[in-house]
Amino acid sequence: MLYAGTSFETAVAETILRWHGQIVRGEEILISEVEQLYPRRVARFVSTRPLTVIDATGLGLAQIEGAVTSVLALPTGCGVSSPKPIADDIFNCGAIEYEKTQGWGAWFRAQHPQADGIQWVSRQYNVGRCLVLFEDLCGTVLEQIAAPVPLYEEGSTEREVVRRLIGQLGWGVG
Predict the structure, then answer these.
(1) Domain ranges, residue 77
(2) What's the longest Cα–Cα distance across the chain?
(3) Among residues 27, 5, 33, 7, which one has the least CA distance to residue 169?
(4) In a shared domain, residues 138 and 99
(5) What total of structural domains would you count in the chain?
(6) What predicted TM-score, i.e. pTM, was given to this entire model?
(7) Containing H/E element for 42?
(8) pLDDT in tens, 12-70
């Protein structure tokens, strides 16, 4: 599987800034350049054909919720709440709940076996979308458009974007 964002900002928010909602107001946060920024690379891909993705955004998610609620075809062990649990149960979870998320992914895949992946609204950068792409169906149609570049190289556009996003949260870099 390949996890991706539809924009660079989305990818940064979902990887580096993903736990910002757990911060206590007023708590000082420093992102470590050495541990969290310098080791990372940015890779960009394009598809050689249109991808078919399961739409788990907005109205697409409402249709999925309706199907699950009406058919009661809930994945085993997904730990859903009621009455409309889908978005929170799938996308708003921490690492301890990834097994549930994987259960939902398998369920989505069983419902649409020809889909190349799933897209949903980023909870960290809600103007962007996240994607999980299934390697067995679309791995050969994704082409890397350039060599990966350092995320945090001095003077790079990527570094400027990272610093802007961190600054918008009121965090620092150390």
Answers:
(1) 53-113
(2) 54
(3) 27
(4) no
(5) 2
(6) 0.78
(7) strand 41-42
(8) 998 898 876 667 777 888 999 999 999 999 999 999 999 999 888 877 777 776 666 54
